[in-house]
Design brief:
single chain; 172 residues; mainly alpha; Arc Repressor Mutant, subunit A; 3 strands; 67% helix; 7% strand; globular
């Protein structure tokens, strides 16, 4: 039995699928979705022990990277790993936990700038190590070279999918 067949049987067994996938493309998509879900759950378990969700953690990381200038709400939404229509509610929750602050722009009242608070920075500092460990556990069976190849393949796939998405939207 080849390595590809074993992987296919393993995934099919895991999701209790009786029939083969209609195509290798569909198998790849389902495998990627299943793997992404498991990785999200591993990281989610780490951050949820600290009272935040994986999406809230993502917002905090984005704001830490933005520095003291902060970012407008819509810019945060564009940078999210998983697109979410409820960015305002997400930031509301973080503000109630005193992890972010918001301020309306003096020049454009429609624009609200968000910044990470000192408390938010402290939480991220406590989470940096555990999240890094969780990420390492997700890919501990990979060599550095194999991991670099995986990232490159995913970048290439995502770039093409983004381009296709843009082309579909512009033709509508």
């Amino acid at each position: 039995m080849t390595r590809t067949v074993r992987r296919l049987l393993s995934l099919r067994s895991e999701i209790k699928q009786q029939r083969p996938f209609p195509s290798s493309h569909q198998e790849a998509v389902v495998t990627l979705m299943r793997t992404a879900d498991l990785a999200r759950r591993v990281v989610g378990d780490v951050v949820e022990r600290h009272g935040i969700t994986a999406q809230q953690y993502n917002v905090l990381r984005i704001l830490r990277g933005a520095g003291s200038d902060g970012l407008p709400t819509l810019e945060i939404a564009q940078r999210m790993i998983e697109q979410t229509p409820g960015i305002t509610r997400l930031i509301d929750r973080l503000e109630r936990k005193n992890l972010v602050t918001r301020e309306r722009s003096a020049t454009d009242r429609r624009c609200v700038y968000c910044r990470i608070s000192e408390r938010g920075l402290g939480l991220l500092a406590r989470l940096d190590g555990p999240v890094q460990e969780a990420a390492a556990q997700c890919f501990e069976s990979f060599t550095k070279r194999a991991l670099a190849q995986l990232v490159e393949s995913l970048d290439r796939t995502r770039e093409r999918m983004n381009q296709q998405f843009i082309e579909r939207r512009s033709s509508e």
